[in-house]
Amino acid sequence: AQSVTQLDSHVSVSEGTPVLLRCNYSSSYSPSLFWYVQHPNKGLQLLLKYTSAATLVKGINGFEAEFKKSETSFHLTKPSAHMSDAAEYVCVVSYSNYQLIWGAGTKLIIKP
Amino acid sequence: EAQVTQNPRYLITVTGKKLTVTCSQNMNHEYMSWYRQDPGLGLRQIYYSMNVEVTDKGDVPEGYKVSRKEKRNFPLILESPSPNQTSLYFCASRLAGQETQYFGPGTRLLVL
């Protein structure tokens, strides 16, 4: 069965330190992969997406993610966290029939 | 401005009192869908619509109805709300053949 797993429900980092949000998927196909961000009381905003082009994808707000087929991973990173990055981040996998599989989300907490 | 709007944004109601959450998009998207977001479960699709007068069940359709009489609108109807429908609801839309969805700001529903 196709699935997506976000390994951490909460991640807490200090401002100015690197961020790593993990996402693994299971698939026998080549999927498209997305990261969405949800700020409190706001809708979901597309952060970045991978659709079989370059494996390192750059998104908005300094985030990037690397598609690693051998590890079936699409981890989200940022070199230096900012207070405004505090939000929930959701990893999404899309298969050839446009079926979307949603991760459970990771809440990113930024400590001053 | 291209957007998906939902109304109301917040709603408190009582068990059994019919309610409708509206969703409207101004991007001429064919595909629209409704999700609910619950802690630890991520987003789950309730219903979707491929185009006008074409709707289908998602993963958790029980207790919900939808209609798609016009391309821009996709209301979600709860005929007899129950407390287990307390959740955060998102409407989304996309162009046919595209994977990127655009989300509304969410509707937070509390059923007492």
Describe the structure.
The complex is a heterodimer of chains A (112) and B (112). Chain A is mostly beta strands. Chain A is built from no helices and twelve strands. In chain A, the strands form three sheets. In chain A, strands 2, 5, 6, 10, 11 and 12 form a six-stranded mixed sheet that branches. Chain A has a four-stranded antiparallel sheet with strand order 3-9-8-7, with no helix packed on it. In chain A, a hairpin with a 5-residue loop joins strand 7 and strand 8. The radius of gyration of chain A is 13 Å and the shape is globular. The model of chain A has no long low-confidence stretch (mean pLDDT 89). Chain B has 112 residues and is mainly beta. Helix content of chain B is 0%, strand content 51%. Chain B has no helices and eleven strands. Chain B starts with a strand and ends with a strand. The model of chain B has no long low-confidence stretch (mean pLDDT 93). The chains are: A mainly beta (112), B mainly beta (112). Chains A and B meet through strand 5 and strand 6 of A and strand 5 of B.
